[in-house]
Amino acid sequence: MRKGEIAQGGMPLINRMQDLITSFEPATTGQSILHAETTRQFYSFLERRAVRLYSATAGIPGFMWYVVVLGALISIFLVWLFDMSVMAEFFLGGLMPFFIGTMISLILILDQPLRGEFGISPEMFRLLLDFMNKVLGQPAG
Q: What is the pTM for the complete model shown?
């Protein structure tokens, strides 16, 4: 995902898990309750996975970037309208664009949290995949 590619290798494993969960027939009330909770958690997992896969390619829409840049320019322009000394004008006129630029850079870096050098590390996903492969008897990959 850091490279902008979405791996599809996990689907056979997820399908296997779904087959195991749906084919299980509870024999007791306790098993029935446990099965219902397992099913609920599995579908919650599927929802979160879908959100994670979507967030690998999604980002702030282009229109929002126009709003951010326009707001920054208007803020800087409004500082110039204040009646103050030249030194204060240069100080505020330099400090404000610096912080606005820093915030825009931060938004740009964190816009796609699963991609790029500053993205979230995939290590936890790898550990989870290895664990699931061990439990279900699938080869790690």
A: 0.47
Q: State the amino acid at position 47 in one-letter form.
A: E
Of the candidates 140, 141, 135, the one whose C-alpha atom is nearest the C-alpha of residue 20 is 135
| Alpha-carbon span 9 to 15, nearest angstrom | 11
Q: Are 72 and 104 in contact (CB under 8 A)?
A: yes
User: What digits encode the pLDDT tens for the residues 74-116?
Assistant: 988 888 788 888 888 888 888 888 888 888 888 877 777 666 6
pLDDT tens, 63-72? 888 888 898 8
Furthest-apart CA atoms within the chain: distance in Å: 83
Domain ranges in the chain are 7-59+117-141, 60-111
CA atoms within 13 A on the CB side of 35: 14
Q: Are 119 and 57 in contact (CB under 8 A)?
A: no
